[in-house]
Amino acid sequence: MNSGERVTFTKSLMLLPMLIILAMFFISVFTLFSSAFVDRGGFSLKYFQQIIDRPDYHVVFYRTVLSSITVAILAVLFSYPIALLLWRANKWRNLLLIVVLVPWLVSLVVRTYGWIVLLGPKGFINAFLGWLGVVDEPVKLMFNDTGIIIGLTHVLVPFAVISILSSLLSIEENLEEASRVLGASGFQTFRNIVLPLSLPGVFTALMVLYLASVGAIVTPLLLGGITEKFVGSQIYQEVMATYNMSKAAAWSICLLSLSFVSLVIIKLIERRALRGQE
Amino acid sequence: MRTMSPLSRTLGIVFLLALPLPIFIVFGASFNGSAYIQFPPESYSLRWYIEAFTDPRWARAVGTSLWIAAVTSVVVTTISFLAAYFTLRYAPKINTLLELAIFSPLFFPHACMGVAAVALMAKLGIVGTPGAIILAHIIVTVPFSYRPVHVALRSVDPDLIRAAEVMGASELRALKDIILPICRSGILTSLLFTGIISFDEVTVTMFLIGPEITTLPVQIFTFIQDDASPVLAAISTISVIITFLAIVLLERVAGLTFFVQRSGS
């Protein structure tokens, strides 16, 4: 369906609801920006200045960025073998795909709650370690960076699987066959054909995972506790506990700028990696 | 030529099985007989399910989440369908620009989306109302609705529509009898996918709740912070079952191929 027929005014009304929704989104972003530069009714850069001045706030940003890089890379490493498995499993792919989709779509809160049950001081892992006699005291797996990284990685693996699997499925079967016929081993075929051709999916995953991780609130709040803050948990506190919208907005804008810069860097790395192939 | 080395196969299977693990742990813990959360349970009982079903707060949260998901999915799918139909048929030139706008929310970290949403809703004076939550859910789900609907509509052969209209069918008739049936699985994918996202959305929603209204995931979040009663395991299991059933339904009526298509195709 692609004809570009003549438009009447009545017909163009079909586009109106979408335009309203998009306008709402852009107005909300505009409101976010306008409220960040306001303090007591006047223009102010107070909260930006505060972020620049306070070393404890720098720590929050560092933690968020470093943890998110770790999470994105870990999640891709874990998801690659799963994506390969699903790619090879022609007959069972739909069933296995459900095993990936259910954890992806089940609410973030529920999955994080599962990790609380697993990682908590009385949780499954500590009970198991105690039973083995490996540890006397419960190991602190929660309320620190380890907890946040474990939780976020697990939450984000399913998306990475889907992204990499999409790339793998678009590889032409002949390519692999040709490589094998010409005498390449299974590993050589993987290294020279499959891996390079799946890179677009890997980079999409890295980008989406990084974004999802720097913008996370629920998992860092529940698994990181009060002291180990993420930018998201700080923002949540400013809005819900101290009712400081301007400060929350300033933090959001810093987070947003930071993610755009990171996206550009990931894009540049991707371009480099893909150019190397030609 | 579809082989896999034993090592990568084993890794794949182990990692795959680890994905639903926390969900199974929650499921197991929900049958716990004692007063604090524990896995594996020392005694078994259904007391937390009884509490989940008799406490009106949980029934209300489940109900709210279900109807908000239903409204969101129908409205957002309709909006996407109208926009995609209009663009493909009457204004193909604006498609690139429109898609850029539609997919731009995907580049916003969720925390920023939440603050932006609460800033907007506060201006509109609707924080803490179902309207605010639905509007935010529509904004969040639009990209996930537009893609399947657009892909489906693009696959309709223009000659079919032309033939119908040459034979005297009105545009509405052609839509109803030709285009909609062909786009069936794309529309169903959009309906169910956006419904599931809305039902389970928490990061943006938690900024918009009020004393009058809260959704199931947000209420679970609030309860985890306040006390760790095992009733949470039971209620989480119920929420997993609802999501699971929706995914199985999606697999039955539309298939899952949409999820593993490259965006270009």
TrEMBL record, chain A:
Gene3D superfamilies: MetI-like (1.10.3720.10). It is a multi-pass membrane protein. Its main location: membrane. GO terms for cellular component: plasma membrane. The chain crosses the membrane at residues 12-38, 65-87, 94-116, 148-171, 192-212, 248-269. It comes from the Bacteria. Keywords: Cell membrane, Membrane, Transmembrane, Transmembrane helix, Transport. Residues 61-266 form the ABC transmembrane type-1 domain. SUPFAM superfamilies: MetI-like. GO terms for biological process: transmembrane transport. Pfam families: BPD_transp_1. InterPro entries: MetI-like, MetI-like_sf. It is found in: Cell membrane. Belongs to the binding-protein-dependent transport system permease family. CysTW subfamily. PANTHER family: ABC TRANSPORTER PERMEASE PROTEIN, INNER MEMBRANE ABC TRANSPORTER PERMEASE PROTEIN YDCU-RELATED-RELATED. This is ABC transporter permease. It comes from Pseudosulfitobacter pseudonitzschiae. The lineage of its organism: Bacteria, Pseudomonadati, Pseudomonadota, Alphaproteobacteria, Rhodobacterales.
Automatic annotation (TrEMBL), chain B:
It comes from the Bacteria. Residues 62-250 form the ABC transmembrane type-1 domain. GO terms for cellular component: plasma membrane. SUPFAM superfamilies: MetI-like (SSF161098). GO terms for biological process: transmembrane transport. InterPro entries: MetI-like, MetI-like_sf. Keywords: Cell inner membrane, Cell membrane, Membrane, Transmembrane, Transmembrane helix, Transport. This is ABC transporter permease. It comes from Pseudosulfitobacter pseudonitzschiae.
